[in-house]
Specification:
The chain is an all-alpha fold. The protein contains two helices and no strands. The protein starts with a helix and ends in a 10-residue tail after the last helix. Its EC number is 6.3.4.20.
């Protein structure tokens, strides 16, 4: 599965995706710039879903 498929499956299963973390930075909010954040943001966009975690 790719990240978009994972997001779609998580939504289908009503998984708490807002409790997942992808950022490489160790902060209270995700940076939105690292490779992992970029992949996550693109996956949510491709799935036409809102990523509800806080970003800097």
């Amino acid at each position: 599965m790719n990240k978009t498929e994972i997001v779609k499956k998580g939504i289908e299963l009503d998984a708490p995706l807002n409790l997942t973390w992808s950022c490489y930075e160790r902060n209270d909010m995700a940076c939105g710039r690292c490779q992992s954040c970029t992949l996550r943001l693109n996956a949510f966009a491709d799935a036409e879903a809102e990523d509800k975690i806080p970003y800097v």
